[in-house]
Design goal:
Layout lengths: L13 H9 L1 E5 L4 H11 L3 E5 L23 H12 L4 E5 L5 H4 L8 E4 L7 H9 L4 E4 L10
Parallel strand pairs: 1-2, 1-4, 2-3, 4-5
Helix pairs in contact: 2-3
Length: about 150
């Protein structure tokens, strides 16, 4: 096992570590997806595609994996820089655009896993779910929907 992942042996055997390294993951939404991407990369997933058209705002810093230097930068681009600083050998594709029903059809979804970390302020997360259904494994960060009690 390469030195970078030696400590993973507590949880993962060498064969599984190699499988993880080759697994291709799509992360749609780089808000909460920023933490997911970093954890995946640190565990050894080195083939990531990150998608987000939003920009980093001051109000994101309390709950997303960005800092003040990233304010006004595209989230996918800022996350890419952070991930490259952790592992410059990783193959990370950046799509710095909002995912829409139209462009979803043009994005090559040749991944093993998709992570739906999109904001549920539109129907786009549902389009993603339908688009990948039956094709690849989909994880959603929105297991429970909640409202505010008044």
């Amino acid at each position: 096992m390469e030195e970078r992942y030696n400590r993973n042996q507590i949880h993962i055997d060498e064969g599984s570590q190699e499988l993880i390294k080759g697994c291709k993951i799509l992360i749609a939404g780089c808000g909460i997806g920023s933490y997911i991407a970093e954890c995946l990369l640190r565990m050894g997933f080195e083939r990531l595609t990150i998608i987000d058209g939003d920009t980093v705002e001051l109000s994101n810093l309390n709950r997303q994996n960005y800092d003040e230097a990233d304010i006004d930068d595209n989230k996918a681009v800022a996350l890419f820089k952070r991930l490259q600083a952790i592992n410059s050998q990783a193959a990370i594709e950046v799509i710095p655009h909002y995912l829409t029903a139209d462009n979803l059809k043009r994005i090559k979804i040749d991944h093993d896993v998709a992570v739906n970390a999109l904001d549920f302020s539109s129907d786009v997360p549902f389009y993603l779910m339908k688009f990948v259904a039956g094709e690849i494994f989909l994880l959603s960060t929105h297991i429970i929907w909640a409202g505010r009690a008044s």
